[in-house]
## 1
Amino acid sequence: MTEESDWGLRVVARRSTTDQVLLELRTAILAGRIKPDEQLRETVLARAFGTGRSAIREALRYLVAEGLVTHEINRGVRVRSIDIEDVIDVYRARAAIEVAAVTLVMEPCDPKLDLTGIRDALQRIREASPPEARAAPSPELIAADIDFHRAMVGLAGSPRLSRAHEPLAAESQMLLNWHPVYQLSDYIADHQQLLDAIEARDPAAGEVVRRHLELSADLIVQEATQYADRLVNAGRLVGDDGGTAWSLR
């Protein structure tokens, strides 16, 4: 038998217990299985995972740093509650990074662009979007959407831009669970437009990216506002200041 197996086996990644807990919790939060404002108790999680509390505590620290959960005295650790100002801020910050990345790509110093990552993500968007359907984005579609934008930022070849973008991508993946029902063929076309502008090195590509992100933010804010209004009308949400703060539960 040769050292290189013909079985097609992949190298097993060696992960610490903390890494595994972090991956499971992040996935559950981004998929919406753990809802905003739900409390994450160390003892409960340690029992569920069958691990010690130290691994749970370290994983929660990472999630706090990523902005997916918060830690408050006397309240413990909770999945971050999202309000309208958060949505606007996340997408404003994304626009700053993504427009900057695409603007760098438009410079003619490198005539070749490796668009493989973007094209692969767009194909996944197509596969997760029945063209005739109107629906809220599925978890698979949301993941493909975020990967499309990661790959787009990656084209700039700037590790710092990609690092700055990553926590915003994670927050956006959570927010997109509250994207309203949408014509999925338009969802595909919106991303195809981005790819076309980048591939053609359109000088207006940065503005195309900005409009795309503004549309996403507007749709999420609209859905969030309607959700908050329904809770208020049902007498289930009373803001401390009478404002429009809301918790997506």
## 2
Amino acid sequence: MSSQLRDYCKQLKLKNIVEIYEEVGYETKEQYLAELFRMEVESRHSARVKRLLRKAGFLTPKSLEGYVFDPITWPRPSSKAEILNLAFLDQHENVLMLGAVGTGKTHLASALGVRACTQGKEVRFFRAVNLVNTLLEKHQAGTLSRFLQELRKCELLILDELGFVPFHQDGSELLFNVIADCYERRSVIVTSNLEFGQWNQIFGDNRLTAALIDRLVHHSHILAFTGDSIRLRQAMERSEHVMITTPGQTTTNSDSG
């Protein structure tokens, strides 16, 4: 490619074409350009998804491949399809995942967030206590407004593990303001091991808790997760199949009592 063409590509922000133009087979002018631009679009999309995934802050990106939905109760009119195709995002609706520890809430929340990123949507993932601590730090440093402005750019806010650690009153109020700001503007996914009636243990203020729940529950899909811990069950299954081999003897953990 001539330096002049390289310069044109640079000005038009078509840097990928410089690298891929020789890979495209030529049959007709229209076919060649269509294929070239298709590859440019796909390359840009792939790069954007990587940026979105990195920016989202997932602890461990998850997928829905192999995910077991059996522990989940889908309340009417909510449906599995409606949640998995992310239709709730377009309606600025919330998804609240309630259930015991280890039943797959964080995995599903993360997988939905990853899927949203692949569709080009801005996502932010936080453990609830980490977000509260960040809000307090930004408030004390005088940079809270800037941080909140960044949060407003996202289309999906994921708050994981709400209920493990009680919040300081100032932290509770700051988190309430974040959720209130999301109301009917962007979607929120919350995972919690506590029922709504126990949330006052986290926030320490009955009126604030009631107002927060009111905003989250309105326009929401509430999923109940039941059953035993998936991690515990998997660990037990692995232990049952661990082979302990000694000279002349093969046994399993389950055989040893």
